[in-house]
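During the practical work, I worked with a single protein chain and the tokens that describe its fold, as given directly below.
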Amino acid sequence: MENIRGILFQGISGKILSGILGISLIWTFISFFIPLNMKVELPSILLGLLLFFKDRLYQEFYKFSKKDFALLGASSLIIIFAGSFYPYILDHFGYYVPTLKWLTEYGLVKGISNIDLTLGQMSVWHIFQAGFSNFSDPFLRINSILLIIYSIYIIERKSWIQLCFLPILLLFSQSPSPDLPVIIFSLIILNETIAGNRNTKLLFAFSVFVFAIKPTMIWLPVLTFLSSVFIFKNSFRPLFLGIIILLLFFVKNIWVFGYPVFPVAIGDFGASWKPNPEVLKTSSQFAIMKTYDMQYTYEEIQKFSIVNYIKNWFSLEGIKSKINILFVLSLAVFSAFALIKKKKMITLICISLLVKSVLILTFSAQYRFFLDVFFVIFFVLFYEYFDQKKSIIVFSALSLFFISILSFPEFIQKYIPSFRVGSFMTGFEKKQLYQPSTYEYHQFNTFKVGNFKFNIPHHYPYSFDTPIPAVSPNYIFDYVKAGIFPQLLDKNDLKKGFIWKKMTSEEEKEAQKVINNIKNTYK
């Protein structure tokens, strides 16, 4: 990648990030045609090892002092230990693992969102994870590896304030959550931009790559674009690589979802495999209810006045309201800070964050969509305050705190019950010292409606280890309610993709049998 597109920044971490970008783009392209199985993974690993020794990239580590190695070793041990706990993020079971199974067995499948809408995301990060999940990372701990890479970057670039973020990010190390890479990459790009890195071509390309992983990161390409134009006075030519990545992202989304940006049904190119409008409507209503933490029905929310929209969002029961209030206060403080400082870069960062915040508040103001804003604001406000000594002290204290939460989740379950994710943490087990903890369920039933034969987990809402094609029970109810059901484009080949069709009377009877079976398992 460096030979083709230039150097993002010096050091082993810069080479690794360039490699992540290159591998992700190549694998995204080839996953249209073939699955990301061992035939893809093994040659990639062998090529990487060959170049690592041929170009003597290991010499980059000789630049580390003994103190640097000690810090890297300590942080790596903490990361590996944190990553060995059981996954507890619900999306791990309902979205991440099923996505990886489809990618490793079939690649990108046209209209996959017709059998499970969440699969229409097919994040570029999951494409990257899928390619390494056959042999080198069967426990799906790629995020733990990324945290170690982040540690290397922090030490190489002496960006000590970022050491304060590592312990918080340990909470994302057990699952291939795309939230972790976008937070890490955005902080790295932000640091490079503030430090005066003039390689705007690669900075913008990497920013678009982050957007392709998770579109809620729209502020990052906006920032790199604005800084390229207004600070570095560049022409639009350096943006070419970023535009190519963006086009690949759009094509990938249209292929699996039917529209350019998941989950927004905007930009209709007439794809025959796009999801049913009623299913999209149900999903949109659910997103609005999630904005209010499912504490109001969709009908109740529709009756809100503008004042109630704001008031009820700030007064939700539990921790979510505190996060919402802190979010708005943080934006207000940062905006005031930008006005006082009157520095062009800080002003552009503020504008970019406000653009993102307006879009998030408009579509679905869930706290998980603006978590990165807290990191960015803290980074800019205290950029010059945290030296190595202060950062190591904070890192040590926070690491102890978050490892304690993972090991003894009863504390968070007792004192912060509204933080629902905490209720799925299971604590420390001895076996995780030699093998990362994973769940196995392997209970499912097989059904057929029309030409679509599929599996449904037995008495469980998520299909994380159900053989594909698998459908989550909740979607069956949505399909029957809409009077439609997923069907194969080619009954003999899953790779050809899926569409939805109105059910015949016979298919309605078949679908009703499925629903009756699901209901009976929960009695």
